[in-house]
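Researcher: Next entry in the queue.
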Amino acid sequence: MTESVEQDEFHLEEPWDRDAAWKEVHEIYSATGMRSGMGSLVSVLVRTHRRSIDYLRQAPAAVVYLSWGGVPRRPEERLHLASRFGGMVRRGIKLKAMLDELHAPYPIRRLSGAAVTPANFEIILALRNIPPSVLAQAIPSERRLQLKWLRALRIAHGYIRYTAASSRHPLFCWLVTAISGYVAERGTDPSGYMRDLLRDFFRYRIEHGGFNFNWTLTEAIAAQERWHAELVARRDNARFVLQYGKRFDEEVDYGGMPIEWRNPNKGDKALSFVALRSGEALFLEGRAMHHCVASYSGEVAAGRSRIFSIREGAHRLATLELVQNNSGRYEVAQVAGPGNNKPSARVHAEVTAFLEKINAGAFGS
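Model: Structure for this entry, 365 residues:
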């Protein structure tokens, strides 16, 4: 069946202008989505009536619910969907009535066309199980944040599908709101946390008798870190005491150094320098940053190293190690970002200011 047959299947009130329609469709959907198989579907939908494009502009994600989360590959499948869509348009029904017929939640209209790609079809369809009032609050307003939100949800949903959970599970509803809050607060994609966090969800729930669905994603990640520290402490505390002469959670006195410092000259834009004074703190830093700082516990316990976590809010940016030279002044032994990558120029500038304060005796002796 050819494209011309698909076109002739509909008796339009005005001639079909391929170039004009494609231009309109590309204003709504991303080039990535159009290249991924969705282009053939929406090009047929927009031919069904001169007002079809209006519905797609108002709710680009309607195509997901029309096709039940799949991308039709055969012309006859596209014709079937177009026939249904065109029938609704010709009836002149309101957008909400159309979405109701498609079993689509009304807040889904807030999703931009850029977010509606075949890779996201399945997760967008799963959002029908979220209460509309919750979904309305959860969908990020900015297009770039919607993409990060959906990507993290897609990874999370792919994991929980193969567990006892599903898109109807309270965990999925929590993820929809928690991931939304995370990307709105930080503007970053939390996908890297998803598999570990969800794997631990079931283990944590069994050991602690529940999961706090009032947590934000940041709070859940912090709880996960504390739990892992507990597990390590139970396993390794005796060895740690024998090796370093201190308990795993026992803090070392950093003398004249601050427990936490922020550059007062930077105001709200200042980074935090948080002293890592125990085996537990070093373990959590190493786990979050994916490097080997936990192996420096002996250096810290012996007073040969002073290690700080450099953070922006709760987000860890880099790890700083300071050592004393022969003259008694502190110098940077190393500063490492996640995975031992090089930190930004902003981090290095703040490290310089922090080091100057320490060597000037600003924190006492």
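Model: The mean pLDDT is 84.
Researcher: Noted, moving on.
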